[in-house]
Amino acid sequence: MTLKKVDANPSTLESSLQELKSDETSRSKINFILFLADNDPTTGQSWCPDCVRAEPVIYKTLEEFPEEVKLIRAYAGDRPTWRTPAHPWRVDSRFKLTGVPTLVRWDGDSVKGRLEDHQAHLPHLILPLLAPST
User: Fold this and answer.
1) β-strands 102-107, 69-75: how paired?
2) pLDDT by residue (tens digit) across 14-27?
3) Domain locations in the chain?
4) How far apart are CA 58 and CA 94, in angstroms?
5) Is the pTM of this model over 0.70?
6) Is 123 helix (H, G, I), strand (E, B) or coil?
7) CATH topology (fold) of 3-129
8) Residue-wise pLDDT tens digits, 98-134
9) Please, what's the b/e burial string for 71-80 (b: 16 or more CB within 10 A of its CB; e: otherwise)?
């Protein structure tokens, strides 16, 4: 049906999450956060090969879902920024990221499902995240 994408970074993710929480229409939608590596300015592609592989699969799977899906694309930064052990999303108890891409189903204020970097490119694993949450 419809995939609505919103971009965020470490300094804007909280405001994007607050918008989701306060938006009455978003509460009834399926919401995801896709944590990604930034694009390399010299190539125009992500510096992360797993992100390059997973992004089109994730977008296609979510776009084909019959209900509206909202996706926050959360860009973690360039390679040195992401590799920092103190990266905000590595130490945030809600996310505890260890790799990118990471796809999470976000309901309310918490993660209701996730696919790590080695799983995020597999449609048969993405589809269960679209199931109604309980």
Assistant:
1) unpaired
2) 999 999 888 766 66
3) 3-129
4) 22
5) yes
6) helix
7) Glutaredoxin (3.40.30)
8) 999 999 999 988 999 999 999 999 999 999 999 987 5
9) bbbbbbbeee
In the chain, the amino acid numbered 36 is L
Q: In the structure encoding, which two tokens stand for residue 9, read together?
A: 């970074």
Go through the chain and tell me how many residues it has.
Answer: 134
The candidate with the shortest Cα–Cα distance to 95, out of 33, 29, 6, is 33
Instruction: Assign 3-class secondary structure to 16-84.
Output: HHHHHHHCHHHHCCEEEEEEECCECCCCCCECCHHHHHHHHHHHHHHHHCCCCEEEEEEECCCHHHHHC
Q: Which residue has the tokens 């990266």?
A: 87
CA distance 70 to 49: 24
Residues acting as catalytic residues:
48, 51
